[in-house]
Automatic annotation (TrEMBL):
Bias (Basic and acidic residues) ranges: 28-38
Tree of life domain: Bacteria
Protein name: OsmC family protein
Region of interest called Disordered, as start-end residue ranges on this chain: 18-38
Pfam families reported in the protein's UniProt record: OsmC
Source organism phylogeny: Bacteria, Pseudomonadati, Pseudomonadota, Gammaproteobacteria, Moraxellales
InterPro entries found in the cross-reference section: KH_dom-like_a/b, OsmC/Ohr_fam, OsmC/Ohrsf
């Protein structure tokens, strides 16, 4: 896996993945940023949420669950000192579908957290306390 990060001036950068996708990162205005993109630490948090969501949805699809909506809401705390690393992250999954089996959702969230989500497991190894919760909703109609 590879990536390149290109300086765009001030504290703005364009990051490009090895697969050719790119995203602009920027700093806050009080640090010279123009607020043209997410902060690098926000991308790290979003990446973890994407990794965990990928796992959960893959497992639910394999267990033939009829998911109509899945959302991961992440809430993170950072250290007050430099480096301002993540200290706690809570991931709350909202899974909606038709006749979902709650046991399948619970298992998917647990397996992602404990076995499959590389980003989450890497952050935990670095001392970040990561917790998970979920709710299962029935699609109306």
């Amino acid at each position: 896996m590879q990536a390149r990060v290109h300086w765009q001036g001030e504290v703005s950068f364009r990051a490009e993945s090895g697969t050719g996708h790119s995203v602009v990162m920027d700093g806050p205005p009080d640090h010279g940023g123009l607020d043209r993109g997410p902060r690098p630490m926000e991308l790290l948090l979003m990446g973890m949420g994407g990794c965990a969501s990928f796992d959960v949805m893959t497992m639910l699809k394999k267990s033939r669950q009829q998911v109509t909506h899945c959302e991961a809401v992440l809430d993170a705390e950072r250290a007050d000192a430099v480096p301002a690393v993540f200290t706690k992250i809570h991931v709350h999954f909202i899974v909606e579908g038709i006749g979902l089996n709650e046991a399948h959702v619970k298992r998917a969230v647990m397996l992602s957290a404990e076995k499959y989500c590389s980003a989450s497991i890497m952050l935990q190894a670095g001392g970040v306390e990561i917790t998970h919760s979920y709710e299962v909703l029935e699609t109306p109609g």
